[in-house]
Amino acid sequence: MGPVLERHPLRSLLAREHTTAAAYLKRVADRHQVLGYGQMAHRKEKFSRWISGTEPELTAQLAMADLHGIDPEEVHRRGWPDWLLLALCDDRSVWELPWTVAGTVEALEQAGGGPVDRRGFVIASLGTLAVTGAHWAATTPAAVAAMGGRRVGAGAAELFETRLDTLRHLDDAVGSAHAYQAAVAELRLITGVLTTGSYTDATGRRLYAAAAEACRLAGWCAYDSGHLADAEKRFTAALRAAAIGDDATLGASTLAFWANLRYSCGDPYGALGLVERALDHRHKITSGRVLAMLHARQARAHSKAGEPAAAYRAIDAAFAAYDRAGPTEHDLPSMYWMTHGEVHEVAASCALSLGEPQRALEHFDAALRHEDPYDAHTEARGAGIYLARQAEAHLALGDIDAAVAVAERAIEQLGGADSARGTSTLADLRGQLAAHRKARPVADFLDLTA
Q1: Bond before 357 cis per omega within 30 degrees
Q2: Residue 348, exposed/middle/buried by CB under 10 A (0-12, 13-18, 19+)?
Q3: Are residue 115 and residue 220 in the same domain, yes or no?
Q4: What is the extent of the structural domain holding 127?
């Protein structure tokens, strides 16, 4: 189950155009007739049906698309209501900006804006993902030194890097909603320095890298909060900034986080395309933990696609890359959470998706017992999600008592977490347990957590 759709994109479209449902329906009906589709009723109840789940007739959709200058092919390809997102031009333009310093600054300025509340939609098609990855790979870093404005030295870049490290840990401590606002504010500050300051090429690259990391963090927090379209907008802006900053490792990390979003939302092949693009440039990736993360994301995508051989090969590659990574203190500060235990948690999730619950439980156990264990205290949301999956594994093996016991721990872990991912995972677990409601422990659990 994906994040809950709280606001239909058609509502967002009306809000942006400052119009009413009645007035909008009249415009659609007029266009419907002009296009030769005949008369269309435009009572207000029709709008209510459209946003509550009833799909408009195709000719009505084509009239709406024509009204907003959207290619009819997009209506057929994306389906209702996803194609409506193309009518919201702020999201469309970020994909079309040139991969230059000027285009990157404009993308960062757009990413520094607040979110439009369109939950549950992924706006980038597979073709757009492929083109974006190709642009990232092909972008040649240009000179970024700036001569006008107040002089900014390496010290300012270092301060931004320190603040971003704090923000990453704040996400763990206070949740994605609060950390998102802080990351966007930090991005605005960095972008302001980039556009108004004077700095050397070396300092400029560090500033672009800092902007990329702020954008990547904002994208991750947006995803965790269920704002998928906004997450993708920020991930692509982060990729641009990483390319301009000549930081292939940061770009690869961004692709890995983006891949997580794609396979979690039912697009494992889109995720694989992003990971494979990053791994094409593995010789430029300086972090062993980023490489391990990429292989782990690859494994998860293969497991979601039902490809066990490829998934387990990627898990082996993730463990091998991690073993070569060296001590945590010698790796990127942003990869503090990537442990040997984390790879076991991913391996467990893969096994569960592939219908091997016993193998999953073995990896879940190893994740906490390894000398380099999964850090459940730092990764509270992740720990809750993995506990919910562990409960699913017990349930698949028919051990209802163990499933309920672990589910109670998952609820406790995620109870105060502000996370659409966590909420969705718990909803899935409750749905699976509901099939066993006749068992007293399950009934008690479902009643207590209703």
Answers
A1: no
A2: buried
A3: yes
A4: 90-246
